Amino acid sequence: MVFPESENTAGGDRSRLFVYNGGFLTQRRVRRILSLAGYDIRLGLPQSDDLVGVWGNSPTAHRGLDIAQKRNVPVLRVEDAFLRSLHPGRIGEAPLGLLLDRSGLHFDPSTASDLETLLATHPLDDTALLNRARGAIERMREMHLSKYSAFDLDLPPPDPGYVLVIDQTQGDAAVTASKGDYARFREMLVIAQEENPGARIIIKSHPETAAGHRKGYFSDQDVNDRVSLLDSPISPWLLLEGAIGVYTLSSQLGFEAILAGHRPRVFGQPFYAGWGLTQDDDPLPRRQRNLTRAQLFAAAMILYPHWYDPYHDRLCELETVLDAFGAQTRAWRQDHNGWTASGMRVWKRRHLQRMFGQHGKLRFVAEQPKETGQPHMVWASRAGDTLNVTRVEDGFLRSRGLGAELVPPLSLVTDDIGIYYDPTHPSRLEEWITKRETLRPDQILRSERLTARLCADGLSKYNIGRSAPDLPSGHRILVPGQVEDDASIRLGTSSVRTNIELLSAARAANPGAILIYKPHPDVEAGLRDGRIETDLADIVVEGTDPAALLTHVDEVWTMTSLLGFEALLRGVRVTTLGAPFYAGWGLTTDLEAVPARRGARPSLMGLVHATLIDYPRYFDPVTGQACPVEIAIERLAQGTPAPTGLGIRILSKLQGALATHAHWWR
Questions:
Q1: At 447, is the secondary structure helix, strand, or coil?
Q2: How many other CB atoms are found less than 10 A from the CB of residue 313?
């Protein structure tokens, strides 16, 4: 994928960076981040104004260090950031951030690094910065993010009440820098047992040890009736939640233990030791300042790293990387075991494969297999009352074009409980809405920004149609038509089930209002039955972008249309005569029964967070990767099309003459 030149490379001072490690030349992402940060990689011998680039304390680092000393030029130490990727770099996965340090190495206490200087001298008292830090810590906890985040959240953690002893890989530079060896690790294990008599001891293996890349300091020989070895990919946040004590030499997991509320006992001198947040077995005298968790995090995760935005090919802030990690880890966690899928129309399968088949095989079958060990997905309208399946349906920000015209979606929802449009059963969306009754400040801010962007760009589900026509003056009520055999009508309405009945109810309750009827886009396109003739409406608007209409009306009356949710985003009052997913939470006027289980009272931003951030999955047609909602919105606003094949485009042209057989392709 070729991106346009990034804004980060335009202008400004640039430095030549001479390297003597092949990884700088073979790892494109590393080269790119360095370039965006202002460093141009070169081969040869540096001059007085140049720098030498060295990767940490790697086996080849001595080459660059020797040349830097001989040529009397400064050294730039390069390391992976503390949030790196799904999997360790040894399997070839590119990083989403680098640590660039001109003073030393963050893990080597022999010289104060740029990070240590930040921790020792930066005021770290800016309220906005610390609020960002607190929000990011909670996001990492909620999304179970660590340096490598390919954790299986279905794996249960051990029963709580254990002591966690953290292993590291043999010969790792961070271990050597903290004078770690076999004797030191065994001393740590003995002390953990002595200080916690009777408690279980769990040794957590390093991910690279579990993957077979490098040996750790502990093995099965250290296991007994009290000590066990854990090498399964369980989230460290779950492990830390159940631990009563944490012991480490210099592992990054010790830093995460601090974020999780622990005061770990530290036997080395990692960057997070010496600031009043750890029990230090080997204190570093020059570190005398006491910091809060938020201050430590702000320096180490916000101020120090260079973070990379893979969707725009530019440097970015931590929050953008958290957005990316959230989308990518969710995709891996849902997909890495593979899927079987049934009830999927042939035209949808290529896109489903792109969206769900990148981390494990997606296999299409006629019906749900019996015992495959894999999760099974079904298109929601074809699932019926099938148990133990994940229902799939179009998302709420779908595409620039109609699904009935076979335009692939940029978002899909997956629901392992029910489906959002069926109020007769609970759904995962209802659980998210209930959970978002209370939002953190960072969640409110993200939801507000998302809503403002949607409204400013005039985005809706399909993003088609012209601008609004001139409308009669008066109290305007928009009545969106729906496809009357749609599942949301069949399952989500009771006394009012047709567009005529909806118009009649709106007119009876508002005799002096201007009723504006907007037929459903599929009906307008001739792809579904449902065209009506009525004099109940003052005006019928066709071919109009529904988002454009919402800025000109005072109310929306609907059965279950998504347009009701889009109206709420724009501050328009909504009356429902059914039970759409957004009804029953205190944000709409509901004239029909809604499920009693919808007892939470979220704010509008809580509804937005649940509906547009938590529930759907998004696909970026530019990079071909899972992405956060903000990227999907940007692609829709730019008109970036989802990929289609020639056969799909030809098939879509045949549908106008086959509107009465829409069930063939839906």
A1: helix
A2: 19
